[in-house]
Design a protein that fits this description.
By secondary structure, the chain is mainly beta. Helix content is 6%, strand content 57%. It is built from one helix and four strands; from the N terminus they run H-E-E-E-E. Strands 1-2-3-4 form a four-stranded antiparallel β-sheet. A hairpin with a 5-residue loop joins strand 2 and strand 3. The longest helix is centred in the N-terminal third of the chain and has 6 residues. The radius of gyration is 19 Å and the shape is elongated. The termini are far apart. The model has no long low-confidence stretch (mean pLDDT 84).
Length: 108
């Protein structure tokens, strides 16, 4: 996560399609992720680098009953840069202090 934070001012990951095969206290798992990485391109244009990521993991259950990663292989299946029309990035390519736009709904 530190490497992502250092490279991209804003990221979003939608994780899904989880599959696990459990045998005793070991498991192999497979997960897909659609990731968005907002950054300033070389010319300063706000850009969304979209990626489809595949995680192949081996996990083990410890004596305390908690499952932990033993091995992880991360594969970027594809990536595609897309210019962004509206962005939370400032002119220097950094997010402002309050970058989230909030919508407030009142009950009637």
């Amino acid at each position: 996560m530190r490497a992502l934070d250092a490279r991209y001012p804003q990221t979003f990951h939608l994780v899904g399609n989880h599959r696990a095969r459990v045998i005793g206290d070991t498991a192999t798992t497979e997960t897909y992720c659609l990731a968005h990485h907002l950054h300033a391109a070389a010319d300063g244009t706000p850009t969304d680098l979209r990626m489809l990521v595949h995680y192949a993991d081996a996990t083990r259950r410890g004596p305390d009953g908690v499952w932990r990663f033993h091995r992880r292989v991360i594969t970027a299946k594809w990536q595609s840069p897309h210019p962004v029309d509206a962005s939370v990035l400032d002119a220097a390519g950094r997010p402002p202090e309050q970058s989230d736009q909030q919508i407030h709904v009142q009950e009637r």
